[in-house]
Amino acid sequence: MFRLTSGRAGAGVSRSSALLAGSFVVVSLALSFLVGNSLALAGAWTLQKGAGQVIGTLVFSQSPGDLTGGLYGDTKTEFTLFTEYGMTRDLTLIAVPGFRRASVGASTSSGPGYFDFGARYQVFSKGAAVASVQGIARIPGASDPNVSANLGHTNAEYDLRGLLGYGFKLGENEAFVDIQAGYRYRTAGPADEVRADLSVGYRLRPDLLLIGQSFNTVSVGEAQGGFRRVREHKLQVSAVYDINARLSVQAGSYASVYGENALRERAVFSAVWVRF
After folding, report:
1. For residues 160 and 165, what is the distance between their CA atoms, to the nearest angstrom?
2. Could you read off the pLDDT of 119-154 as tens digits, one per residue?
């Protein structure tokens, strides 16, 4: 996700390399986005001390059922407010409140979604390459597991991951790649998950960034309480337009392309980015 206002270069790096590293845009879902991808929340880069950004994202998704023709269909609208703040040049704090409205058949649930909070710590930086670790706790807003639309959204989750980012030139334009691998511990029934996410960005113009992403989830261990082991692979594309140095807008779409016991999800989303 998008213009990194902070990128930090290592000691002894040339001014041009430092400027290149500092201009890269990184992504998170997560998506997860917070969105269902909660994604990758953010990329490997950390913010400068005292810098911050707030990203409001609105997602609309539909699914006629799962990728193997079973399960149930659903419709979901979700709004998340991704906020991060640079406590130091190495440590960025993260908070993501959300609101969701989901319908599964005749069952509908509206109210707070997951509240994600945690931190990302940069452990390595050299030139335009960075490596970080990130920990996120996810507190559910929904509380009644007997409501079908709340299924899988009433349990706390804990996500720990490693992140690698690299910025480079592709022709005359800037580009970046961000790779994340993590483990998500899920409580109250669902199986734990291994997650692997890939983001690639290309700045088509100085004010326009194109992003392609892959989000991958595989259950590990045994699911309990009626839950099933899940395998899910999503692809996402989006574009981010910089209105000025502090404000950007984004639009995109994602889809589930393969999986087991996973919804055949199709979604569109838009976002507004404010940096301070």
Report:
1. 17
2. 999 999 999 999 999 999 999 987 666 565 566 677
Name residue 266's beta-bridge partners: 62, 255
Question: Is residue 222 exposed (0-12), middle (13-18) or buried (19+ Cβ within 10 Å)?
Answer: exposed
Q: Which domains does the chain have, with CATH numbers?
A: 15-275 (2.40.160.40)
Q: Report which DSSP code applies to 150.
A: G
Query: What is the Cα–Cα distance from 244 to 158, expressed in whole angstroms?
Result: 35
State the CB neighbour count (10 A cutoff) for residue 244.
8
- What is the rounded CA–CA span in Å between residue 117 and residue 83? 9
Q: Max Cα separation, the chain?
A: 62
Evaluate the CA torsion angle 209, 249, 130, 194 in order and state its sign. Answer: negative
pLDDT in tens, 233-268: 999 999 999 999 999 999 999 999 998 888 888 999
